[in-house]
Write a structure and sequence with these properties.
The complex is a heterodimer of chains A (about 775) and B (about 270). By secondary structure, chain A is of the alpha+beta class. Chain A is about 35% helix and about 20% strand. In chain A, the strands form 6 sheets. In chain A, strands 2-3-6-5-15 form a 5-stranded antiparallel sheet. In chain A, strands 4-16-17-14-13 form a 5-stranded antiparallel sheet. In chain A, strands 7-8-9-10-11 form a 5-stranded mixed sheet. Chain B has helices at about 5-10, 10-15, 20-30, 40-50, 85-95, 115-120, 130-145, 170-175, 185-190, 195-215, 260-270, and strands at about 30-35, 55-60, 100-105, 125, 150-155, 155-165, 220-225, 230-235. Chain B has an 8-stranded mixed sheet with strand order 3-2-1-4-5-6-7-8, sandwiched between helices. The chains are: A alpha+beta (about 775), B alpha/beta (about 270).
Chain lengths: ~775, ~270
């Protein structure tokens, strides 16, 4: 039997918090707590609602990615009893149980507590799981074992209530060497282990992160003593707490603080926090070294090595890695997209009980590892793993990592998981003569980098490209990205190709016969260029559909309130197209040629912003009508624009054949469209002032206060319209409603109060009333 | 998507509801629901879902309107006799609400087409009158992970349950397979009181709207039984069956199968 002397200990405060959770759920289910309030309570406890109504996910933190067999046993039982029987490993080493009912979450959390696990801080604006190199303690390259620090820091930070109410999430990672398997160079706070003689030290990086607006972390300190991690993390947490932007969650992460303050000021404030802390005498938990003794399994002795089964040799080559201690090995269990059935996970747990260090590791590549496995045990382990339903033994290509993608994420453009599966399928059919190593293909479904495409050997970033009046799902091909201490860099785009060509491209690149990391940028660019052609829909309708879609690609369903860089990307495409056409108009030889390109510029410019209003008209006439209604009428674009849109339409219908005189006007319109585009906030509202401050009941002026005039509108339609206007503003913002006296003012105010909104003021103004309402809850 | 003035007025009584609002209405307008069977249960369900502004309604039925249908299948009129049921029903839907796009399939739901059709929808209503199709809907919905509302009516009684495949008890967890030939007659032979179809079909429509809006407690893991003569609703708690042939731990059904048509056997033995 394998043994390990230590593991993560949950602080007492977490136990108490978990035991109180059941009561909160019961209160909510009994209708005593409002949904918004309960949601704010639930998410920091790692309980997320899934896309399907009534289904919840529990994200269990696994500090340093170390999980014990008995803990896995419990997770498996819970998943089978209350969830869908599958466990999911995240890129931050957590384990998730999916599709459970809310009413069952208390028993799940209490049951996890019994085996020392918790989902506290699994979500929300909290200190998230603290990660470490998946092979810490056994990796030949590491300076020293970083797990004791990741675990002790988890215990320290989790014991503090303030870790659960930060401006936004706060992620910490430990890498054992500069190769950065833990991605410390692209996280909020990253530590790299270094040895000076026998002194353990860390270099400190902060303000990195993937997701939207990806950034490489900046170096904050060359070296700290290893035992100083507590005060460094505490100081950084306090800096974040004080300077993070709580009013805008889209710009709240530590990297925005760094960007706003500048590196020098950021470091100065951090130093200030550390000095303050020195006087406070921080109570840090003990750092416990991890000692595991690996013993050969009794069962293995019977397994002879005389006759090795098929596939063993190849498995040994690709999935068995040497460790620093000779004769002991790490076994990699490859999981497709991080999913494993509870039954199989349980079997792996029993195996871990018999061989190796007695622990299972979860990895940033969503795989599992068994470490310190003795040479003699390898055939036995192979035989055991062969008996699983999940194929964890073979690999037909490099590891694929994908974000959730458009099938579940509303910001997503492309179905990244569908692409990952398609690439895997393609590679299965391809005879790859080359050896692939540890390189990773990383896929994000949109320009946000949740799939970490910016640090992949090959990065794939979901995009949309317009061809005529249709959209084609595409991926930008990026190369050269890398996470590493001091030399981390974000990948650069070499080509944009249709999504459906990506599997063939990947197969081709691998066919060159070099590991991915070494295939040069130019070489990949050259191959990618072959795949960049977009056929017409008649030639190849399939190219106009994303993986797993039966309908043509569209952006329907992504509109107001669902800010996505994906949407921004499409607007940019249209604006670029309009600019190009306008440039060509300047060089046009004659009035006819000029009119033609000017017309194109008008259509592209008019179409660009309509998606922010949830519209995607196809015909030119509809584009002009929608543009008038949604952008000119409310005053965002100058009224005069209407006239030349009419002229453009005349041109289109053949009533006039020269619109070359409109060049200056088109330039002006495009300039304003661009200005509006640049001012879009996270809710797709314009932050600039409208040109004319006309108040209509559709769109109101964008000041601090929104207003809607509902005089002459009868009950209850006035309330309906006021409610729709309130839906459009952010929580905490104020809406002013102008209403007739009598029933309207009485009913509308009372109805808002009944539905949990705050009526700030009801003021008489001549014949009518001004009712001011603050949005207190989401509608 | 933003609502037009007409839409705001049309749907005002449900936009007013705290749990719906404009966002909820937009959700409904972008949702797709498939109704299998444009008969007794499908009629009220289709009419209410159309009125509520469910953006796309699919109708599948191979039959033509028969005079004997009109006693309970209220979407059809006397003048519709001999028309296909889907054509007759889609005319009514369009007359109620032109926001709704109707997709019609004038065919039976079979092992060959079920998954292909069902996968396009967010929710399926089982408004069929025979066991083989009920199992087929259950299985196809399981494979495509599309939730559905099962219901059945006979004489003065009705029963229903909502299934979220893979997460809550499915129809096969309750009933492993169709009853043996001759044990249960179909409603065409046994008779049924018309409003029964209305009660249960309307409850199915309620479940659909709740699911699409993500509000309330769905009728999952409990079978609702309606006794029209005693005028009582009763609930039986049901659990996922670990030995369920399709959603259990070791499923034996891995593709769509044709269950025996018990009704035909009964007819033949007469």
């Amino acid at each position: 039997m394998a043994q390990i002397n230590t593991a993560f200990q949950l602080p007492q405060s977490i136990t108490e918090d978990t035991l109180a959770y059941g009561q909160k759920v019961r209160e909510f289910l009994d209708g005593q707590t409002r949904p918004a309030v309960f949601k704010a309570y639930r998410i920091p406890r790692g309980i997320y609602e899934q896309r399907q109504a009534g289904a919840f996910m529990v994200r269990v933190r696994v500090p340093a990615g170390m999980i014990l067999p008995e803990q896995i046993q419990r997770l498996a039982e819970l998943s089978r009893t209350y969830g869908n029987g599958v466990l999911h490993i995240t890129t931050r080493q957590d384990v998730q149980i999916h599709q459970v009912k809310l009413k069952n979450t208390p028993i799940i959390l209490e049951s996890l507590l019994e085996v020392g696990l918790s989902s506290r801080g699994g979500g929300g604006n909290t200190v998230r799981n603290i990660t470490a190199c998946p092979r810490a303690g056994v990796c030949p390259n590491e300076a020293f074992d970083v797990r004791p620090y990741a675990i002790a820091l988890s215990e320290y930070l989790l014991d503090s209530e303030s870790s659960f109410n930060l401006p936004r999430k706060f992620k910490v990672a430990f890498s054992g060497c500069s190769q950065d398997c833990a991605l410390a160079s692209v996280t909020d706070l990253g530590f790299f282990a270094h040895l000076k003689d026998t002194t353990k030290r860390f270099s400190v990086y902060a303000g990195g992160g993937m997701g939207s607006n990806s950034r490489i972390a900046a170096k904050i300190k060359d070296f700290i003593l290893a035992k100083e991690v507590f005060s460094v993390a505490e100081a950084m947490k306090r800096l974040f707490d004080q300077h993070g932007d709580r009013t805008n969650k889209h710009r709240a992460r530590l990297r925005y603080v760094l960007e706003r303050l500048g590196r020098d000021e950021f470091i100065r404030l951090y130093q200030q926090q550390r000095e303050k802390l020195q006087q406070e005498h921080l109570q840090a938990p003990a750092i416990r070294s991890i000692i595991s003794t690996s013993k050969a399994s009794a069962l293995s002795s019977s397994a002879t090595t005389d006759k090795l089964p098929d596939g063993y040799k190849n498995w040994r080559k690709i999935n068995v890695l040497a460790e620093k201690k000779p004769g002991e090995f790490t076994i990699r269990l490859r999981l497709a997209l991080g999913d494993i059935s509870a039954d199989d996970f349980e079997k792996i747990a029993s195996l871990a009980d018999m061989v190796g260090e007695g622990v299972i590791r979860t990895t940033q590549l969503q795989d599992l590892l068994l470490c310190q496995v003795r040479e003699d045990d390898l055939p036995f382990v192979f035989a055991q793993l062969s008996g699983l339903k999940t194929d964890v033994l073979t690999a037909h290509g490099p590891k694929l990592i994908a974000c959730a993608g458009a099938s579940t994420c509303r910001q997503g453009l492309c179905r990244s998981r569908g692409l990952a599966t398609a690439i895997a399928d393609k590679l299965r059919q391809t005879d790859l003569s080359i050896e692939f190593g540890d390189e990773v293909i990383r896929i994000s479904g949109c320009p946000n980098s949740c799939g970490h495409h910016l640090v992949g050997a090959i990065g794939l970033q979901g995009r949309a490209k317009r061809v005529g009046d249709r959209l084609v799902p595409c991926y930008a091909i990026l190369v050269g990205g890398k996470a590493a201490e001091a030399e981390a860099r974000l990948a650069e785009q070499v080509e944009l190709i249709p999504a459906k060509n990506v599997p063939a491209l990947v197969s081709d690149v691998l066919g060159v016969g070099q590991p991915l990391g070494q295939a040069g940028k130019e070489q990949i660019a050259k191959i990618a260029a072959k795949y960049s052609h977009i056929p017409t829909i008649e030639e190849q309708p399939d190219v106009y559909r994303d993986f797993g879609d039966t309908e043509d690609f569209s952006l329907a369903g992504r509109g107001p309130g669902e800010c996505g860089a994906g949407v921004m990307d499409v607007i940019q495409l249209d604006i670029d197209q309009a600019k190009q056409s306008l440039d060509r108009a300047k060089d046009a030889a004659d009035g006819k040629a000029k009119s033609e390109v000017l017309y194109k510029a008008i259509v592209a410019a008019a179409r660009s912003l309509l998606i922010t209003r949830g519209l995607e008209p196809k015909k030119d006439r509809e584009i002009f009508t929608s543009f008038s209604e949604h952008l000119i009428e409310p005053g965002w674009i100058a009224q005069e624009t209407k006239e030349f849109l009419d002229q453009a339409l005349d041109y289109r219908l053949g009533d006039t054949d020269d619109i070359s005189h409109l060049e200056k006007s088109v330039e002006g319109m495009l300039g304003r469209v661009e200005e509006l585009f640049r001012s879009l906030d996270a809710n797709l509202n314009f932050r600039v002032e409208p040109i004319s401050k006309k108040l209509s009941d559709k769109e109101s002026s964008k000041g601090n206060k929104q207003a809607i005039d509902l005089r002459g509108v009868e009950c209850p339609l006035n309330f309906v319209k006021a409610k729709l206007a309130l839906e459009k503003i952010d929580l905490g913002q104020v809406l002013e409603v102008v209403l007739d006296a009598g029933e309207p003012v009485a009913n509308v105010s009372a109805s808002f109060a009944e539905q949990g909104q705050e009526v700030l003021n009801v003021g008489k103004d001549g014949e009518h009333f001004h009712v001011t309402i603050r949005k207190k809850k989401q509608i | 998507m933003s609502l037009t003035d007409q839409q705001i007025e049309r749907y005002s009584r449900q936009i007013i509801l705290e749990q719906v609002g404009g966002a909820g209405q937009e959700k409904l307008l972008s949702s797709k629901v498939l109704i299998v069977g444009a008969g007794g249960l499908g009629s009220p369900a289709a009419l209410y879902l159309a009125a509520a502004g469910v953006g796309t309604i699919g109708l599948i039925d191979a039959d033509k309107v028969d005079l004997s249908n009109l006693q309970r299948q209220i979407i059809h009129r006397s003048k519709d006799v001999d028309k296909t049921k889907v054509a007759s029903a889609s005319e009514k839907i369009e007359a109620i609400n032109s926001d709704v796009a109707v997709e019609v399939y004038s065919e039976r739901l079979t092992t060959a087409n079920a998954r292909q059709i069902i996968q396009h929808y967010d929710f399926v209503i089982d408004g069929t009158d025979n066991f083989p199709t009920k199992f087929l809907i259950n299985d196809a919905c399981y494979f495509e992970t599309v939730p559905f509302s099962h219901a059945g009516i006979l004489r003065f009684d009705g029963q229903m349950i909502t299934v979220l495949p893979g997460r809550t008890a499915c129809y096969r967890c309750l009933f492993n397979k169709p009853p043996p030939a001759g044990l249960v007659p179909s409603c065409s032979q046994a008779g049924v009181l018309g409003p029964l179809a209305g009660v249960i079909g309307c409850l199915q429509a309620t479940e659909v709207l709740k699911y699409l809006l993500g509000v309330g407690e769905l009728l999952t893991d409990r079978l609702l039984i309606f006794d029209g003569l005693g005028l009582q609703f009763r609930e039986v708690t049901v659990n996922r069956n670990p030995d369920c042939r399709i959603c259990g731990r070791e499923p034996s059904i891995t593709e769509l199968i044709d269950e025996e048509q018990a009704v035909c056997d009964l007819r033949a033995s007469k």
